[in-house]
Amino acid sequence: MFLKLLGESIRFAWQVLSTNLLRTMLSLLGVTIGIMLIIAVFTVVDSLEKNIKDSFSFLGSNVVTVDKMNFVQRDPNVPFYIYFRRPSNTYDEFEFLKSNLKNASHVAFFGTRSSTMKYKSSSINSINIYGISNEYKDVYEVDILNGRYFTANEIESGRNVAIIGDEVAKSLFPFESPIGKSITSRGQKLVVIGVLAKEGKSLLGTPSSDERIYIPYKMFTKMFYVGRFGVSPSIAAKGYVEDIGLVELQNEMEGMLRKVRGLKPKEESNFALNRPEAIADAIGQVFDIVGYAGWIIGGFSILVGGFGIMNIMFVSVQERTKIIGIQKSLGAKNYFILFQFLFEAIFLCLIGGATGVLIVYFLTFIPAGGLEISLSMKNILLGVVVSSVIGVVSGIVPSAKAARLDPVEAMRAG
Fold it and tell me: Where is the ABC3 transporter permease C-terminal domain (predicted)?
């Protein structure tokens, strides 16, 4: 019965389309534009959100870091200088957490500071030099294209070795391999043992591994002052997947840090526990507002389109009044007539919606600078669902009118 109704509805809808092509196209235009606007807004919003979140991928995932201040949601009543007066993380605290944390798979320690790097007559400025512990590669992704990672002995002894980013390699060694060569910064010579794979620039211009250099942390302390008025290192702990929201890890870290720093129960913590997801959540709230705006803009267009579809359905009922009378006289039930016209309205809206989605799909091929735009299956399904709902809303009144027609009066009207 369903397939029969669907087949007849598609056939009648096609007749409406082919017989009154211009009228139908103008009526479907509102649905097409409305769906196109909504899907376009959500596609751009989703793409922007993804690209921006990818820009913060250097912060890692499923990771909790110990810093002086929060990434987001700082207390507005606390003066900014208070955060700088907080004690810096120490290597001893890192080793204590690494030895005692039960809810962390790996714990890393690192500090960063920008500097100039030289090789012979070539130099590159504002390069982020990271002093890292051996566990850094287990917490954050370190994708080495050529060469190797540090050995445990090189890390522990603070050897003068380095892993450089793609941009550093191209700037200092445009015509030769950097492996085994010595580069200089702040009076220290560093032997290159590895080159990172190219990452490319992010949408927000956030730090990229292309302009980064990794060295052992103990070597880093020979080049930069570490402490309250110098570099403030971070401790990063990678949690387990089963620890939803890393709640257990954060609670354990807070308890251990308060203990090792000798804080009393009523004293406020003099450190901040941060998660990259906090930034992602803040970004998501902004894009939610943009999404609501998309619904409002597209909603008006869909409303106009819905009235257009309703008009087509009323005309279709009027033109097929005699046919309805014949169907009823032959035993057709009211629900059969109702669903016949309702499916027709849904089919017409789906044509308009599919056209809108198709337009958005072709628009994604237009270059948008550093923004990579893609139409997701979620948004395609959204277009289909919204079109179907508009079809039901627009077609229910004309369909109900057709279903309630008296067969005798319907045949006389024809």
Answer: 296-407
